[in-house]
């Protein structure tokens, strides 16, 4: 397994939305409920895409501790003078997502980029964990027949040692 996803704020943000509705504050800016993500392996890389529309790239923080990748970001509420909000449904605030990565990933070579509201994290599979082909070689000839070649006579099924 390459990763385990954990969103510590998913249940909490749902509770806050319910409290806003009970308090009679419909239409208030709601907290972010999570960071939608796609993750897959392609070749010798593990790739994850996080949807972060409207997030300032300077607010994105990535950290790795052991096998846990933590992605944090913040989407600020626009500060508009003399604005009277009619509807505020877009989520704002700070949020975090953690992924527990498999030990087969080389987190020292993690790369991240942010383009068009999508954070892409690419982590190579560690060299020692990559699939590789093992060459099977013929074992050395036993020392008792060293200098001899084993020949097989076709059709008879017999083998004999021949001095060379």
Automatic annotation (TrEMBL):
Pfam families: HSP20 (PF00011). Residues 28-140 form the SHSP domain. InterPro entries: A-crystallin/Hsp20_dom (IPR002068), HSP20-like_chaperone (IPR008978), Small_HSP (IPR031107). Residues 145-164 are annotated as: Disordered. It comes from the Bacteria. Residues 148-164 have a biased composition (Basic and acidic residues). PANTHER family: HEAT-SHOCK PROTEIN 20 FAMILY MEMBER. Belongs to the small heat shock protein (HSP20) family. This is Hsp20/alpha crystallin family protein. It comes from Geodermatophilus maliterrae. The lineage of its organism: Bacteria, Bacillati, Actinomycetota, Actinomycetes, Geodermatophilales.
């Amino acid at each position: 397994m390459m990763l385990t996803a954990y969103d510590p704020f998913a249940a909490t943000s749902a509770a806050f939305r319910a409290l806003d509705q009970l308090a009679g504050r419909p239409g208030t800016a709601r907290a972010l409920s999570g960071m939608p993500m796609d993750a897959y392996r392609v070749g010798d890389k593990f790739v994850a895409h996080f949807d972060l529309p409207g997030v300032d790239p300077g607010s994105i923080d990535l950290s790795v501790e052991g096998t846990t990748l933590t992605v944090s970001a913040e989407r600020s509420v626009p500060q508009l003078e003399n604005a009277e909000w009619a509807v505020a449904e877009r989520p704002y605030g700070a949020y975090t997502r953690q992924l527990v990565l498999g030990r087969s990933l080389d987190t020292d070579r993690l790369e991240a980029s942010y383009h068009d509201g999508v954070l892409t994290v690419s982590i190579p599979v560690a060299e020692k964990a990559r699939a590789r082909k093992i060459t099977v070689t013929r074992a050395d000839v036993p020392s008792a027949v060293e200098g001899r070649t084993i020949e097989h006579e076709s059709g008879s099924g017999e083998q004999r040692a021949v001095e060379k």
